[in-house]
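Priority: medium. Attachment 1 of 2:
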């Protein structure tokens, strides 16, 4: 059912193109009309929204995992350097005591 912000269009297509569009629409599980509109709108069109909805959670999860991994490594590096600094202080204090 067409909404008020759409226009009915009669279009002549070569049969091979029509066949390819129908096949692609079937693969994408959309109507022929939706397939054609999506292709005309390009990547910022309706399929772009679908891809964004699919990819955004994956991107967010990847970013969270990367941040957690980086935070863990920074913390481990901090702890290692802290222990090294403590060991150096202790060695220096022992050197001072020997004198």
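Attachment 2 of 2:
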């Amino acid at each position: 059912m067409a909404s008020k912000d759409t226009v009915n269009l009669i279009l002549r297509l070569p049969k091979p193109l029509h066949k390819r569009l129908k096949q692609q629409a079937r693969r994408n599980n959309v109507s022929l009309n939706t397939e054609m509109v999506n292709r005309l709108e390009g990547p910022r069109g309706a399929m772009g929204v679908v891809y964004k909805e699919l990819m955004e959670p994956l991107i967010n999860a990847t970013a969270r995992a990367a941040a957690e991994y980086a935070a863990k490594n920074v913390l481990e590096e901090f702890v290692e350097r802290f222990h090294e600094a403590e060991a150096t202080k202790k060695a220096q204090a022992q050197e001072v005591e020997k004198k």
